[in-house]
Hints:
Layout: E1 4-14, E2 17-27, E3 32-36, H1 43-51, E4 58-63, E5 66-67, H2 73-79, E6 81-84, H3 96-103, H4 111-121, H5 123-127, H6 138-150, E7 156-160, H7 168-183, E8 187-191, H8 195-200, E9 204-209, E10 212-218, H9 219-224, H10 226-232
Parallel strand pairs: 3-8, 3-9, 6-7, 7-8
Antiparallel strand pairs: 1-2, 1-4, 4-5, 9-10
Bound molecules: adenosine-5'-triphosphate (ATP).
Adenosine-5'-triphosphate (ATP) binds at residues 13, 19, 37, 39-45.
Function: Involved in beta-(1-->2)glucan export. Transmembrane domains (TMD) form a pore in the inner membrane and the ATP-binding domain (NBD) is responsible for energy generation.
Protein name: ABC transporter ATP-binding protein
GO molecular function, one term: ATP binding
Amino acid sequence: MNVLAVENVVAGYSVGDQILKGVDFVVKPREIVCIVGPNGAGKSTLLKTIAGLLRPSQGRILLADKSIGGMKPPDISKFGIAFVPQEHNVFGNMTVYENLEMGGYVARDHIRARAEAAMDHFPVLRQKRRQLARTLSGGQRQLLAVAMALMVDPELILLDEPTAGLSPVAATELFGEIIRLRDVGKAIGLVEQNARDAMAISDRTYVLVDGRNNVEGPSHQLLADKEISRKFLGG
Length: 235
Ligand SMILES: Nc1ncnc2c1ncn2[C@@H]1O[C@H](COP(=O)(O)OP(=O)(O)OP(=O)(O)O)[C@@H](O)[C@H]1O
């Protein structure tokens, strides 16, 4: 069974201005699935729609066999989808530990055990648990944002450009952490500007163009395709 199935979804920021014009998108268990495409194609909009920040005007969004399209973000989070937005994804004036508590807000129970598990996964956060988040490096802040997502023990984690603004070394480390999340059983939906590197760690890729599916397939096949490379991956 799919973890997530988006079927023919239409959504946008205002009535009559639809950004997604009938998108299909599937994530299976233990898959990393990339969404790439030109600027403005609707990649972030697709993640926001799945996470419940935008309401689809048509189509279906299924988490396993439960229809979640149109539900509110906290409910979607409770059902097992965690969304890590590109920006403003940690509280700079709170400590690392307090940020983890905020990440568990919708789960409410076993917060301490959940935080311990998140810090087990990212030991650097345990070392820095009493530091304010704004004092972390860019890469550590992104780890914290992902750790906050883990607090609800999601089945599916949606990451919107997690390596934006990171050094190449920090980006490579973060990609390694994303693989580790898959290895512990999480399914991952990943939007990245850094398309080639993201595709290289992913199982399948969807190319979105102007709010529509353009190409999809195993990432290694798309990476090896000269035409796709030229059109969408900068040559
Ligand atoms: N909050 C918003 N209100 C209105 N329109 C928006 C909003 N956010 C994005 N858009 C518009 O939706 C369209 C798709 O944007 P989106 O951010 O989903 O694209 P993207 O594929 O993620 O692009 P990028 O790679 O540039 O981030 C763009 O035309 C953008 O201007």
